[in-house]
Design brief:
The structure holds two protein chains of two kinds. Chain A has nine helices and no strands. Chain A is mainly α. In chain A, helix 3 runs antiparallel to helix 5, helix 4 crosses helix 5 and helix 8 runs antiparallel to helix 9. The longest helix of chain A is centred in the middle third of the chain and has 24 residues. The radius of gyration of chain A is 18 Å and the shape is flat. By secondary structure, chain B is mainly alpha-helical. Chain B folds into two domains: about 30 residues, no CATH class; about 120 residues, Phycocyanins (Globin-like), CATH 1.10.490.20. Chain B is about 80% helix and about 0% strand. Chain B has eight helices and no strands. In chain B, helix 2 packs across helix 6. The longest helix of chain B is centred in the first third of the chain and has 39 residues. Chain B starts with a helix and ends with a helix. Classes of the chains: A mainly alpha, B mainly alpha. The interface between A and B is large, with 37 and 38 residues.
Chain lengths: ~180, ~160
């Protein structure tokens, strides 16, 4: 598993060169954005069940056959598995966001996920749709552009509109999940 | 590769939980120290050739070691300084441990390398006044700490 720092080290080692000013300026940005990054991660961790439940409710509303007998979210046991998986994906996205590098998400969550779903008969199109909804909800909560109340309380100053960059980074991690399931 | 953040994420993942407030605190703590580490890494990257040459010239100033091995010594010292640069960036000893120290004893024994020469070079660098002149005290302390770590591993 890598983070933003060790990612720079691994790529510098491949060239056999020390890490100079150019790469360090990117890392300095990562360090100076630490407060925003922590707040953005909190936006996920404080709303996990809400984000996952909304996403699953979303796919069921868009495709009501899912909860009918014979549907993929019937009986409730399978619906519960769906919610659980949503939370697991959110957990790995939160790790990747904190580390500033997608390797933990790739290695520990996405590697083999598609094959597992295919073997278990999970419909990939619905899973992808659920991840898309989670992505939209997460970005909205992070940037405080969701309708209704403010959904999270950061421990630091940075939040809302200041989290735009980090929210875009989080969205890119959700895109990796979608890519892996395609 | 071990660093403050990956350690936190690994243990959270092993327990299957989301990153907690105490995890954030420890990540934050490592970021607070990061600026002096990165400063030391930057200065070292800028002077890595100069540091290497000065240290090797010091070791080879008299004829106590084979002069013909000097260029190999330059290569090795440069390599270790590069790993120290990586350690300064990650904030842990991971790169030195994984790429510099693991297996080192075996190689040194088989090749009959004079480790004393390396140690002499790194002690020269550690005690050189240049380091304190060119970087802040905190950054110099981080750099010297890693030099000490390497000296102990070689000894």
């Amino acid at each position: 598993m890598l983070d933003a720092f060790s990612r720079a080290v691994v790529s510098a080692d491949a060239k056999g060169a020390p890490i100079g000013s150019e790469d360090l300026s990117k890392l300095r940005k990562y360090v100076s954005d630490a407060n925003k990054r922590i707040d953005a991660t909190l936006a996920i961790t404080q709303n996990v069940s809400c984000i996952a439940a909304d996403a699953v409710a979303g796919i069921v509303c868009e495709n009501t056959g899912l909860t009918q007998p014979g549907g993929h979210c019937y009986p409730t046991r399978r619906m519960a598995a769906c919610l659980r998986d949503g939370e697991i994906i959110l957990r790995y996205v939160s790790y990747a966001l904190l580390a500033g590098d997608p390797s933990v998400l790739q290695d520990r969550c996405l590697n083999g996920l598609k094959e597992t779903y295919l073997a278990l008969g999970v419909p990939l199109s619905n899973a992808i749709r659920a991840v898309e909804i989670m992505k939209i909800a997460t970005v909205a909560i992070m940037t405080e552009t969701n309708t209704g109340r403010k959904m999270f309380k950061g421990i630091n100053s940075g939040s809302g509109s200041e989290c735009q960059d980090i929210a875009a980074e989080a969205a890119s991690y959700f895109d990796l999940v979608i890519e892996a399931l395609r | 590769m071990k660093s403050a953040v990956t350690t936190v994420v690994s243990s959270a993942d092993a327990a299957g939980r989301f990153p907690s407030i105490s995890d954030f605190e420890s990540v934050k703590g490592s970021f607070d120290r990061a600026s002096s580490r990165l400063e030391a890494a930057e200065k070292l990257a800028g002077c890595i050739d100069q540091f290497t040459n000065e240290a090797v010239d010091f070791v080879y100033r008299d004829n106590s070691y084979e002069q013909s091995n000097k260029d190999k010594c330059v290569r090795d010292i440069h390599h270790y300084l590069r790993l120290i640069n990586y350690c300064l960036v990650t904030g842990g000893t991971g790169p030195l441990d994984e790429w510099g120290i693991a297996g080192m004893r075996e190689i040194i024994r088989i090749q009959l390398l004079p480790t004393a020469a390396y140690i002499e070079a790194f002690i020269f660098l550690r005690d050189s006044s240049k380091i304190s002149d060119m970087m802040t005290q905190q950054a110099a302390a981080e750099f010297k700490g890693l030099l000490d770590y390497l000296i102990n591993a070689l000894a």
